[in-house]
Amino acid sequence: MRWMTRLISVIACLAMAIGLDASVVAADEPITAEQMFQDTCARCHGTQGFGDGPDGTTLATHPRNFHDCDIMAKDVDEKVFEEIKGGSASIGRSNDMPSWGEALSDDEIRNLLAYVRKFCKTK
Q1: How confident is the model over 111-115, as a mean pLDDT?
Q2: Which residues, other chains included, contact 37 with Cβ-Cβ below 8 Å and sequence gap of 6+?
Q3: What does pLDDT average to over the chain?
Q4: What domains appear along the chain, each with residue ranges and CATH number?
Q5: By the 8 A CB rule, do 116 and 66 touch?
Q6: Mean per-residue pLDDT for 55-61?
């Protein structure tokens, strides 16, 4: 994966050197886990993962605070993966969290899960 990032950087530099718009080339870069979080999770879980997003106030179940390490430790990664992929109802919880399995690949979900787990490792 590192070689792909370098290749994209080289192509972007070459494009700039010959006068092409480098943003067109850079648009194909993979999205980061942080950006996925901001795009898919922050509306309910908040931009910093505290469960305080603007859409979360409309839900019957309060969105999880990813900084609550006691709560986060109760679920193994595979369970959280399934919750992200299939929605919270897929693991027997509320219907409030939608399924992201159609919008995100399994690898993207794993990267997102790793990002979410970092909220408890930054204390």
Answers
A1: 96
A2: 45, 49, 112, 115, 116
A3: 84
A4: 1-30 (no CATH), 31-120 (1.10.760.10)
A5: yes
A6: 93
